[in-house]
Amino acid sequence: MESQIRHRLVLIPPPFQGHITPMLQLATILHSKGFSITIAHTHFNSPDPSNYPNFNFIPFFDALSNTQISSKNFIDITSTLNTKCVSSLKELLIHEITKLTHEKIVCIIYDGLLYFIDSLAKELKLPSIVFRTTSATNLLTYHACAELQSKGYLPLQDSKSCDLVPELNLLRFKDLPIFNSTNPDDFLQNITKTLSITPLGVSLEDSSLNQLQHLYKISLFPIGPLHMIANDPNNNSNKTLQESHNCISWLNNQARNSVLYVSLGSIASWEEKELTEVAGGLSNSRQKFLWVIRPETVNDVSAWSESLSEDVKEGMAARGCVVKWAPQNEVLAHEAVGGFWSHCGWNSTLESLCEGVPIICQPYFGDQRVNARLLSHVWKVGLEWCNVIEKDEIERVVRRLMVDQEGEEMRQRAMKLKHVIGQAVTGSSSDSLNGLVKCILSVNI
Ligand code: UDP
């Protein structure tokens, strides 16, 4: 960097793993471009500073109650952060600005969920950029939701409708990320911001990106997949859950493409009754599986395991490996893994695509249904199924992906997409990153 004064960026993630991880990846990438990095974060779910000795971590008061924290209610937590953190973050940022001597905060990069930061940055006269941890296609659905709202169609009469949403190509009404109880204004709040960074499945979303730019005239910097560029194993680590590396030794002893990796990310989970059905379905499928069961999924895992029928216990012992938290990127990159049963969070979706692993889609909420639709009907590397958590259905869908010709064809298509994504990392994504750096520097000259 030419200037004597060093340029510092403040990055602000919300306290969700699927948002913290890509923000830290972005920070790692921008640090490699010469910026100093500050991460302003909530106390709840704070990242582990010891993994990032080069970054400055500053916590702000998040006003979250213990009940909110234990409920893990995404909407409720997001809403509290947007309404109750303005003054604590403002105080913190003012303190940071005044204490810097040989550095200048040149830009705030905040997650799109924390839209209150837009006006705060303006008040502090700091340039800001929105970081979106979701697909361009999902961003387009916000526009569709606004249209539906203006025509009086929200809340939807039939949220399970399979009719296609006008102008959203293959998306159906049931794929829309609408929380019926929530005013979609919240989601639309800062969609029209001029500067956005999005960790896209680059090249796979050109059409949605073009549509977004056409609709909103925004400058987008599609950079990604971020984990491939940042290439830092710590970015994915979870402070509260120890990653199990034993599962890698277990994978080392399995045949190529023989293992189904099963994980619902950091928030979604099965109820205990469903967990029993999943165990039955996985066991009866007679396929090898690596299964992430986060501790909060079930009150007492050993009691639950004991309660399983003898044949399911046997199947689990013979063909399964169960962990609390997996080194997911390493798992997906392992040659033994031939399929992923996923909730289709955007990070998991991209991580799977990057390794050429096809997906059994079990979306829960938000953008997951959009991602599932992209995987199954646009890229054709995901299986849409009835989503009924019942052991016979599960056995069928697992065999469709792991044994049948249908699954084999998906694996081949997924390998082709992996190649396309790899090329984009060094091509369009790299250009976009250089454009972003130039843009940040130019607004500060
Ligand atoms: N993850 C992981 N180990 C696990 C489960 C999840 O490292 O056992 C990571 C995964 O690699 C991904 C993130 O947690 O980066 C989950 O993000 P995603 O957007 O897929 O879903 P969310 O948790 O936000 O619903």
TrEMBL record:
CDD domains membership: GT1_Gtf-like
KW Endoplasmic reticulum (keyword) present: no
GO MF annotation: an example: quercetin 7-O-glucosyltransferase activity
Keywords linked to the UniProt accession: Transferase
SUPFAM superfamilies: UDP-Glycosyltransferase/glycogen phosphorylase (SSF53756)
Highest taxon of the lineage: Eukaryota
One Pfam assignment: UDPGT
InterPro entries: UDP_glucos_trans
Matches recorded under PANTHER family: GLUCOSYL/GLUCURONOSYL TRANSFERASES, HEXOSYLTRANSFERASE-RELATED
Membership in a protein family: Belongs to the UDP-glycosyltransferase family.
Protein name: UDP-glucose iridoid glucosyltransferase-like
Source organism of the structure: Cicer arietinum
Gene that encodes the chain: LOC101509333
